[in-house]
């Protein structure tokens, strides 16, 4: 079984941010299964986190910016590309500024940092987005298509103004290929685009040390091109980073013509929503061990009943490791009578209860725990990000951080339409009835 991976240790690098021109230190930290990629602003009070999900994407001008509340992270695509391309699933990205260092304009420094930290396998399976039919997105002159494929492949055509620097590359993206052939490809800009970017207050940290400038049919850079087709390789680098915002790995063949951050992130948004819809329609067989649980099996496992049973079914499950539950939120829920009349919103405490119930199922399905009751003990780092309303389908993800004989700790999050609406770490205990 393909397992999730994280960093073996923490590692840091210093540099200059491309668009702001400020100094920044970035540190990559290991993270628990199911954590995904999150940015931590160590320079702000309370050191807030911003999750690298497409629902947090706000601007895509020459780079991808994610925002949560008032907290912004600019130019996330290179570090996300390196983590994904090098085979990492879970990492905390800590920075003391609002943008990662640009380095030499490639993802090479981040790939080297990951190699320095090391990559280790975790005791949790990977989750994939695997389109079963073609998905096509056309935006202006950009066309992006993803086709069913058991591997992750990208075929990309880069076309500059007036057809200049037209380049094509097609390859399966593996950690080995990424490190050798993609990570060191530098960002590039056409000379006629430089002044408009400067007028907008962007690329303050830009120079020939961290970008290639194309002027006419010539190339201006501090060193020769690293590849004859370096431009298209950097486009592939960006595609990998932007599509990491789906929150899952991809199995499919991306065919891209004149891609950019806008089309890339829009494709990520489409894939995330389709994945949410697919999971909502997933069948619910009831195997004896593990597998998927319907409401009958859930009621055999949990003592909760109406109106306090907050899980309709389990669609992904691995004993003592992880589970994904589903709760269809309807206007018939009794709490909507008072929360709030005329503006129904699912109480946050019930979302936490749903997380706790799924976490209890993960441990209570173990044979030695049969007949026990799970008691919710504490909740840490709880965050409510968006309201949940009637008509929403709540996907409740639980990954065990630790599991002892009678005590468990889990990282949980609730997702609606591919976007995290609440999350936290829960501690619960098992006792005999």
3D structure, described in words:
This protein is of the alpha+beta class. The protein folds into 2 domains: 3-279, Ribosomal Protein S5, domain 2; 295-432, Thiol Ester Dehydrase, Chain A (Roll), CATH 3.10.129.10. The protein has helices at residues 77-85, 108-117, 175-182, 191-199, 230-243, 261-280, 295-301, 348-364; strands at residues 3-7, 11-16, 23-30, 37-41, 49-51, 57-59, 65-68, 71-73, 91-95, 119-125, 128-129, 135-139, 142-147, 152-158, 167-172, 188-190, 212-215, 218-220, 249-250, 252-257, 313-318, 322-328, 372-384, 393-403, 407-416, 419-432. The strands form 7 sheets. It has a 6-stranded antiparallel β-sheet with strand order 21-22-24-25-26-23, with helices on both faces. The chain has a 5-stranded mixed β-sheet with strand order 2-3-9-4-5, with helices on one face. Strands 12-13-20-14-15 form a 5-stranded mixed β-sheet. Strand 7 (65-68) and strand 8 (71-73) form a beta hairpin.
